[in-house]
Design brief:
Blueprint lengths: L17 E5 L6 E6 L13 H13 L2 H11 L5 E2 H8 L3 H13 L3 E4 L2 E4 H21 L6 E2 H8 L5 H13 L3 E4 L2 E4 L8 H17 L6 H7 L7 H13 L3 E5 L2 E4 H17 L5 E3 H8 L3 H13 L3 E4 L2 E4 L1
Antiparallel strand pairs: 1-2, 3-5, 4-5, 6-8, 7-8, 9-10, 11-13, 12-13
Helix pairs in contact: 2-4, 5-7, 8-10, 12-13
Length: 320
C-alpha cells in the first residue's frame, strides 16, 4: 500500500530512500518502505485517487518519467534545474541524462532553464490563443493584444521563461505572431470600413499639415471631424496610425507625422555638418532653424535625446 506521512518536525528525505517506521515506547518496528515523493502536498479526500495513480506510476517509472512527473506536479511555475536536483537528489550527470530523455520523449521542455511539462505548455498555448482571439473580437480595430496584458491574464503564475517558450512555440506552429510589444492571431486581418478609412486619412492629413507644430491630440480629433461622442473611436483609429509607423508619439499628448520628424532629423544633421567640429545647438537656435515655438522645441529636443540623435551638453545639445 501507499501512505502519506505527517510528521512532528521536518526531516530530510529523497526519492528511492528506504525508511523504517518504529513506535516510541516500547520500540516496535511497524513498517518500512521506499520514498516515492518527498516534496508532495497534503492529499485531501477528493484528490486521493489521483494521488494513488500518480504514486503508482512513480513507483514503476524510470528516471525520465519520474523527472517528468515532478515537473508536471510543479504546474505553470515549472522547476528550475536546481529545484529538480533538490527534488530528485540526483547528481548533475544523472539529472542531465534523465532530462535529455524526458525532452526526447516530449514529456518536458527546457524553457531557458525552467523545466515545464509539455501538456502544461500546450494548455497555456491554448489559453493564450483563446485570449488573443477574444481580444480581436472585442477590439477589431486593434492590431493585436499587448504582450504584458497577455502575460498578466494567462501567465500570472508562470515565470517569464515559460511565457517566452509558449510564444515561441505558438509562432512556430503559426498560431500567433509577435510584433514588438503586440501579440496577434496569425488569422487576424484589419479591414477598415470606408468611413474608418476616410477618418484615418483625415487624421493623417491633420498631422501632416501640422508638421512640427501639430495640434494636441484632442484638437487633432476635432480638426478631423471627430465629435465628442466618437472620441474613443477616433483614438483607436489614431492608434492604427501609430502602430503603422505613420505617427510618432513625441510626448504624452503630442503626436507628429513621421515625415515631419524625418525632415527634422535631416535638417539637424545638415546643421551639425555646417558647425563642425562642435556640432552643438541651443534651444534658441533650434527654434529659429525650424521656425517653431518653445512649446514645441522642448518636447522635440527631449524626443531627439531619447532617440539618441542628440545628447544634452549643459544648456545645449550635441548632435550625434
Amino acid at each position: 500500500g501507499m501512505v502519506q506521512f505527517r510528521l512532528e518536525s521536518p526531516v530530510s528525505a529523497l526519492p528511492d530512500e528506504r525508511f523504517i517506521v518504529r513506535s516510541y515506547s516500547p520500540s516496535h518496528t511497524i513498517a518500512g518502505g521506499r520514498v516515492l515523493d518527498a516534496h508532495t502536498v497534503k492529499h485531501r479526500g477528493r484528490e486521493r485517487a489521483a494521488a494513488r495513480t500518480r504514486l503508482a506510476a512513480l513507483a514503476e517509472a524510470d528516471d525520465a518519467a519520474r523527472l517528468a512527473a515532478f515537473v508536471e506536479a510543479a504546474g505553470e511555475r515549472g522547476l528550475q534545474h536546481a529545484d529538480a536536483a533538490a527534488r530528485t537528489g540526483w547528481h548533475d550527470e544523472v539529472l542531465s541524462t534523465a532530462l535529455a530523455e524526458a525532452v526526447k520523449r516530449d514529456f518536458v521542455i527546457d524553457a531557458g532553464g525552467v523545466l515545464v511539462a509539455q501538456d502544461v505548455l500546450e494548455r497555456l498555448l491554448r489559453a493564450a490563443r483563446d485570449e488573443v482571439e477574444a481580444h480581436h473580437q472585442r477590439e477589431p480595430l486593434a492590431r493585436g493584444m499587448a504582450r504584458e496584458t497577455l502575460r498578466e491574464r494567462v501567465f500570472a503564475h508562470a515565470p517569464p521563461e515559460v511565457f517566452r517558450a509558449v510564444l515561441t512555440q505558438a509562432e512556430a506552429t503559426g498560431e500567433l505572431v509577435s510584433e514588438r510589444e503586440i501579440v496577434r492571431s496569425s488569422r487576424h486581418t484589419l479591414a477598415l470600413s470606408d468611413a474608418d478609412a476616410e477618418l484615418r486619412d483625415r487624421l493623417e492629413k491633420v498631422y501632416r499639415d501640422g508638421a512640427l507644430e501639430a495640434p494636441p491630440f484632442n484638437e487633432s480629433l476635432t480638426r478631423a471631424g471627430v465629435t465628442a461622442a466618437k472620441r474613443e473611436h477616433g483614438r483607436k483609429i489614431t492608434q492604427l496610425l501609430i502602430e503603422g509607423g505613420v505617427l510618432v508619439r513625441v510626448s504624452n499628448d503630442l503626436l507628429m507625422h513621421r515625415a515631419a520628424l524625418d525632415n527634422l532629423t535631416k535638417g539637424l544633421l545638415e546643421y551639425a555638418a555646417a558647425h563642425e567640429p562642435e556640432r552643438l545647438i541651443d534651444v534658441a537656435a533650434f527654434k529659429d532653424l525650424f521656425g517653431i515655438s518653445r512649446k514645441y522645441a522642448i518636447p522635440l529636443l527631449e524626443y531627439l535625446d531619447r532617440e539618441r540623435i542628440t545628447r544634452r551638453a549643459g544648456d545645449r545639445r550635441l548632435i550625434l
